[in-house]
Specification:
The protein has 398 residues and is mainly α. It folds into four domains: 6-139, P-loop containing nucleotide triphosphate hydrolases (Rossmann fold, 3-Layer(aba) Sandwich), CATH 3.40.50; 155-212, no CATH class; 228-319; 341-397, no CATH class. It has helices at residues 6-19, 38-46, 57-62, 64-75, 89-92, 104-114, 129-139, 167-180, 192-204, 215-231, 236-258, 263-290, 292-360, 365-378, 390-397, and strands spanning 28-30, 52-54, 81-84, 119-122. The protein has a two-stranded parallel sheet. Helix 13 (292-360) packs antiparallel against helix 14. It is flat.
Length: 398
């Protein structure tokens, strides 16, 4: 199953393990950058035990080892299905962001040449007609195309776009938005130095509880912690391994600023790198305090605590989202009511004009004349400029 984000892959793997009955371990896996389970996945594929693999298109196409594994499994007809989750992304992304999504179709076509029985499933909850047409041109072969749809409208977030003519104008408009939008809030910037400048600007304008969080923030915390471990005589090997994680975070920050990776990919990779750094820091310090065995136990508990915290935050996020949708529904209902009243008034006005226009073509001359006067009045012509009687008409043309 090809999925767009690491968090989605992890959640789906966990859900699959709870929902799909397996006969033995090693049948369901998730692979992403930073994991150390490639050897297990390779063994499961070669022994034909693997039933479901969650993976990104980048890992699937760019990773030469994975590419060879999949090609071999496909040649043996062991590969049965390709499932693309959030398949609308195949069309929406690819020009400048996550370009490997545009490689999925030709990659699949190469597999089909060897294994024509290979099936493809395109899953999404946000299909538009033009997206379906584009996917059909990319993935259908002849008449072999089946759609199962359950279309319904859903609430979408509202976006506000504000154009700034200069940097000072931008600061003024950002401050205006900060003043009116709900708090707490997040202000995204392009680089760590910009975060510090915006922090200072907001503090100067009365916002005292402003915190910055950047790639430098995270990696600096790691470096400080490693120095503390070195003072406790933790091995150089362990300290360097943790430092490498901080260095990877700094490189991700540079890639984000340079436009080499997107914000979503940057955030997720930093999340998992910092998780790994936190667990290794705790485990190393626990070894100093209580010994190797208890240290390993503490590192396991730390990972579990992180998962619990992540799901707690996810639950809170969902509650906030549901509250937003509920409030948005009230606003939408009010707008619908106003629109209905406006349409009713418009229809009444239209009917009134239609009746006047109909009279304007009546056989009776005076009826036509009266309708013309009424039409001019309804159209907003100044009353002093309307000819309302035959005498006024004669006087006008005399």
């Amino acid at each position: 199953m090809i999925v767009p984000t690491v968090s989605l892959a992890i959640d789906q793997e966990r859900s699959a393990r709870n929902s799909i009955k397996v006969s033995e371990t090693g049948e369901i896996y998730c692979y992403y950058s930073g994991t150390n389970n490639f050897a297990e996945i390779k063994s499961a594929i070669e022994s034909k035990k693997l039933r479901l693999l969650f993976i990104s298109p980048e890992a699937l196409i760019k990773n030469e080892q994975f590419s060879q594994l999949i090609e071999s499994a496909n040649k043996d007809k062991y590969l049965k299905n390709i499932i693309i989750d959030e398949a609308h992304i195949v069309v929406a992304w690819g020009d400048f962001f996550r370009v490997d999504y545009q490689c999925i179709s030709p990659w699949r076509n190469n597999l089909l040449q060897v294994n024509p029985a290979l099936r493809t499933f395109l899953l999404s909850a946000t299909y538009r007609d033009d997206t379906v047409s584009a996917l059909k041109s990319l993935f259908s072969t002849g008449s072999d195309w089946l759609e199962i749809r359950c279309d319904s409208l859903r609430k979408e977030p509202h976006f506000i776009f504000v154009k700034a003519n200069s940097f000072s104008d931008k600061r003024r408009k950002v401050l205006e938005l900060v003043n009116h939008l709900p708090h707490p809030m997040i202000l995204y910037v392009n680089a760590p130095y910009e975060a510090e400048k915006w922090k200072t600007f907001l503090e100067e304008n009365g916002y005292w509880d402003v915190k910055t969080f950047t790639g430098d923030t995270k990696s600096n915390y790691v470096d400080i912690s490693v120095k503390a471990l070195e003072k406790k005589n933790v091995s150089k090997e362990k300290c360097n391994a943790i430092r490498k994680l901080a260095s990877r975070v700094r490189n991700l920050e540079k890639d984000l600023v340079a436009g080499k990776i997107g914000e979503v990919d940057y955030t997720e990779q930093c999340l998992w790198l910092m998780l790994e750094a936190m667990i290794k820091l705790l485990a190393a310090y626990a070894v100093v305090l209580v010994g190797e065995d208890v240290g390993e136990f503490i590192s396991g508990v730390s990972a579990l605590a992180f998962e619990y915290g992540r799901y707690t935050l996810y639950k809170k996020e969902q509650e906030i989202l549901e509250l937003y949708i509920a409030r948005q529904k009230v606003v939408d209902d009010e707008i619908k009511q106003r629109m209905a009243e406006y349409n009713a008034a418009l229809q009444a006005r239209e009917q009134e004009f239609n009746d006047i226009i109909k009279d304007a073509f009546a056989p009776d001359v005076m009826q036509r004349f009266g309708a013309s006067v009424a039409l001019a009045q309804k159209a907003g012509v100044d009353d002093t400029e309307i000819l309302k009687s035959t005498e006024q008409v004669d006087e006008f043309f005399s």
